[in-house]
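Design job #97: recover the sequence.
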């Protein structure tokens, strides 16, 4: 199933090219990085070069976890996910180069999450540029990185007994806190505890004996995902006034508590402080499905249970199938978690397949297409759009967040969502557009519509420390301030809870319980129809140009930019679309879509005699002679009142 193609450059060749480019690039102005050290990026949990048996390459697992059904078994789905390719992602490499330029050794932090396998064997700490990563290190989040993970808080009765000794041997355990009545580690920044020996952990009691294994409840718990889907910058510490200041250098963060550090991504905390954090929510794909329908009992994210709660429920949708080749003794499961891990990215996988040979990535054309299709389905399921027309001059677009976190969530840089509204007059004539996007230039008109996004930047303190200007910036490791975050909160949102975890809305107000957002658009008088679309984009032009132009180290920024151009400039992905008939002046009295004409006048007179509110043309709550006058004014071309 894995073709051997040699036509593309291998990772090694690519890096030789990167290094060679670095050598010619030295004439560029070189900014001085903040002189941070490895110690500034230290975190608790298992440390590099301490495993008795190293993490295993995924190729080994593929021998049994790939040979039966590529639509259900872990390997093929995982390799076609962004997580399976996280350390080959060219956007990541471009951002990594800038991070290392901005703060020395910052790559220690980035690669701990993006290449945990390489980090575990010390290849990152030895060279935080990532240039010495090779082969299996480039597998991104490898099978073993997740399946050797130990719950950092021992739970008597449910945790595997061998965990007690593993946890007792840790030199730096992560701090803990109590949430919803359970003690958990303040996991983030890949603060994994790994089993030093190769005991593979998963949700099942297994009957086959293919390798050493232990059943682990931790693998059905979002706390596993919290290791990485919580990103905090450890070089900053929160001050009593709410600002963030640089720590004394060459020293680990004092508390290692993520809530004392600058919050970059808070997907896990967003989830934990939503309704999903405490209970399942029924989100049926089709609530009206009958038992014979294929959608019956399915949730909107593709799993075979209408109730969803965990990250796994939505991002590893459950199905019936085998987790490994049955010839090896795997048994048929009804609750098999598919390793799809799809989210919002609809193009970077193509770039990875373009840049690396298939024998390294195992990305097939069909696998890539299927994965991207699944991401489109996730984006489609992520929100609902409701349109209301007040019968007069206002169209309201309400976007309802149906995910388990903010919409959009996660990586804030370069990602955004927006509303596009088009008003049409008779004969399909476009008369007004809001939030227009020019795909040739990748330019969005932002001033006249709602754009959902997060923006960060540097305050005076960070500017002083780094020599970069105050204000909005894409400098990931230097940013110490949130300037905007109007991303839509999830079900169960409260301001107090979100503020306590560094995820408060910024420069916008959402009231407690609000998991939707409304935007009003003025309806032009001549409009008969409005078309409303909601789009998502992962890599904006502003961001990719920043990655290209700020890079003074290597050609990772140019490589990323070229891929971005090649694959359509991160084409906006459609999330919702709806059409609504509008009749702004109430003059299409007989609602036949043609107005105002004599037939409308006939209807008006009928309604007038019946005192039917449809004759209330001027919207004053009364049916009287003034409505007839208003109608005649409009008939003569006067605008709506
Ligand atoms: C020789 C074949 C073989 C190889 C190689 C193999 N596995 Fe397995 N593995 C199996 C079988 C069979 C099962 C049982 C599946 C079942 O019963 O559903 C299994 C189960 C598992 C489970 C589930 C454990 C549980 O308790 O739920 C995990 C996790 C796992 N393997 C991880 C891995 C990883 C990681 C690798 C590579 C480092 C790997 N396996 C390599 C055959 C193999
Ligand atoms: C990001 C973490 C992560 C990675 C990477 C990962 N898994 Fe899993 N895996 C899980 C979780 C979580 C579950 C349990 C899902 C559930 O039941 O909710 C699981 C379940 C399994 C199971 C049990 C059967 C099933 O499919 O649910 C097997 C076998 C398995 N994984 C093997 C693998 C192999 C092989 C790889 C690499 C090709 C891999 N996993 C990569 C997190 C991961
Ligand atoms: C705690 C783990 C963690 C750390 C530390 C981390 N990242 Fe990430 N990164 C993630 C996760 C998780 C995502 C995916 C989030 C999403 O899709 O919204 C991500 C996404 C990204 C992306 C987007 C990739 C794309 O294709 O759009 C870039 C770029 C990136 N990270 C760069 C970095 C850099 C540079 C650093 C270091 C300064 C870093 N990351 C540190 C976990 C981490
Ligand atoms: C070792 C760190 C790590 C762990 C653990 C981890 N992730 Fe990720 N995840 C990442 C990184 C890094 C990315 C971004 C990869 C990229 O875009 O290059 C990512 C991306 C994703 C995406 C976005 C994919 C897209 O299309 O944009 C989803 C969804 C996701 N992870 C789900 C999960 C779930 C669910 C779990 C827990 C079962 C989990 N992750 C555990 C590091 C991790
Ligand atoms: C109720 C279902 C649901 C739950 C629960 C859920 N997600 Fe998501 N998630 C989605 C949907 C739908 C999307 C696509 C829309 C978007 O980008 O926000 C998504 C997107 C993502 C992305 C991609 C963001 C990007 O910009 O690339 C990441 C990463 C992610 N989720 C991680 C997680 C993690 C980690 C958890 C648990 C802490 C989780 N999700 C819980 C439904 C869910």
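Job complete. Output follows.
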């Amino acid at each position: 199933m894995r073709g051997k193609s040699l036509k593309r450059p291998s990772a090694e060749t690519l890096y030789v090219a990167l290094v060679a480019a670095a050598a010619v690039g030295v004439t560029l102005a070189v900014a001085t990085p903040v002189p941070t050290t490895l110690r500034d990026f230290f975190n608790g949990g298992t440390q590099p070069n301490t495993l008795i048996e190293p993490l295993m390459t995924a190729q080994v697992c593929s021998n049994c976890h790939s040979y039966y059904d590529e639509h259900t078994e872990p390997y093929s789905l995982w390799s076609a996910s962004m997580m399976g390719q996280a350390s080959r992602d060219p956007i990541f490499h471009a951002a990594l180069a800038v991070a290392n330029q901005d703060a020395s050794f910052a790559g220690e932090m980035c690669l701990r999450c993006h290449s945990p396998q390489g980090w575990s064997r010390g290849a990152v700490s030895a060279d935080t540029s990532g240039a010495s990563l090779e082969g299996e290190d480039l597998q991104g989040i490898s099978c073993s990185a997740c399946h050797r993970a130990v719950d950092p808080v021992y739970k008597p009765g449910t945790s595997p007994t061998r965990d007690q000794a593993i946890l007792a041997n840790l030199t730096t355990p992560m701090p803990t806190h109590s949430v919803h009545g359970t003690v958990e580690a303040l996991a983030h920044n890949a603060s994994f505890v790994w089993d030093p020996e190769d005991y593979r952990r998963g949700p099942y009691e297994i009957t086959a004996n293919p390798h050493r294994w232990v059943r682990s409840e931790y693998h059905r718990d979002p706390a596993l995902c919290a290791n990485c889907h919580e990103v905090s910058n450890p070089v900053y510490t929160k001050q009593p006034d709410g600002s963030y200041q640089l720590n004394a250098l060459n020293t680990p963060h004092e508390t290692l508590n993520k809530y004392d550090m600058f919050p970059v991504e808070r997907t896990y905390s967003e989830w934990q402080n939503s309704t999903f954090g405490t209970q399942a929510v029924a989100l049926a794909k089709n609530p009206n499905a009958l038992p014979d329908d294929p959608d019956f009992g399915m949730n909107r994210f593709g799993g075979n249970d209408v109730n969803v709660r965990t990250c796994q429920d939505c991002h590893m949708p459950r199905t019936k199938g085998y987790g490994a080749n049955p010839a090896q003794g795997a048994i048929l499961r009804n609750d098999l978690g598919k390793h799809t891990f799809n989210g919002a990215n609809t193009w970077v996988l193509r770039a990875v397949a373009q840049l690396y040979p298939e024998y390294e990535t195992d990305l097939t054309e069909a696998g890539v297409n299927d994965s991207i299709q699944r991401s489109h389905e996730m984006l489609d399921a992520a929100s609902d759009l409701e349109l209301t027309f007040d019968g007069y001059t206002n169209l309201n677009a309400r976007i309802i967040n149906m995910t388990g976190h903010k919409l959009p969530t996660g990586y804030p840089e370069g990602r955004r969502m927006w509303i596009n509204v088009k008003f049409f007059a008779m004969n399909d004539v476009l008369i007004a557009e809001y939030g227009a996007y020019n795909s040739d230039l990748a330019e969005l008109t932002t001033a006249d519509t709602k754009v959902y996004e997060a923006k960060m930047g540097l305050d005076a303190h960070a500017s002083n420390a780094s020599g970069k200007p105050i204000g909005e910036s894409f400098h990931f490791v230097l940013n110490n301030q949130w300037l905007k975050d109007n991303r839509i909160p999830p079900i169960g949102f409260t301001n107090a809870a979100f503020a306590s975890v560094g995820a408060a809305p910024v420069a916008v107000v959402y009231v407690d319980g609000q998991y939707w957002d409304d935007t009003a658009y003025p309806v032009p008088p001549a409009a008969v129809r409005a078309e409303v679309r909601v789009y998502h984009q992962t890599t904006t032009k502003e961001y990719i140009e920043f990655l290209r132009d700020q890079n003074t180290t290597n050609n990772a920024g140019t490589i990323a930019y070229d891929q971005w151009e090649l694959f359509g400039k991160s084409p906006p992905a459609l999330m919702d679309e709806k059409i609504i008939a509008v009749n702004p002046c109430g003059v299409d009295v007989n609602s036949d879509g043609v107005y105002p004409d004599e037939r409308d006048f006939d209807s008006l007179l009928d309604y007038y005699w019946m005192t039917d509110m449809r004759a209330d043309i001027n919207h004053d709550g009364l049916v009287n002679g003034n409505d007839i006058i208003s109608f005649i004014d409009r008939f003569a071309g006067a605008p709506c009142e």
